[in-house]
Amino acid sequence: MKKQETRGKVKKLKGRVKESVGIITGNRELERKGSRQRTEGAVQESLGKARRKAGEFVAEVGKVIKK
């Protein structure tokens, strides 16, 4: 797992915690911020996965070309 994926997972987890605390305390602002942060983390994680997969694909193509 690359840095961007890990950062996305952490951001998503922080957002989930904020969102939950906002729901429990009735703080709609904190709930919205948490939801937004969770979504941003999910996007960041997905981009990291896509970059990793693209890199793996390019490496495999390179191996095939060398043969």
As residue ranges, the low-confidence spans are none
Mean pLDDT: 94
Percent range for helical residues? over 70%
Total of domains:
1
Shape: rod-shaped
Give the ordered list of helices and strands: HH
End-to-end Cα distance, whole Å, is: 28 Å
Sheet/helix structural class: mainly alpha
How many helix segments? 2
Instruction: Give the strand tally.
Output: 0
Task: Identify the quaternary structure here.
Answer: single chain
Beta-strand content: under 5%
Rounded to an integer in angstroms, the radius of gyration calculated over CA atoms is 17 Å
Give a verbal description of the structure:
The protein is mainly alpha-helical and 67 residues long. The chain has one domain. The protein has 2 helices and no strands. The chain has helices at residues 3-25, 28-66. Helix 1 runs antiparallel to helix 2 (28-66). It is rod-shaped. The two termini are 28 Å apart. The model has no long low-confidence stretch (mean pLDDT 94).
List keywords for this structure.
67 residues; mainly alpha
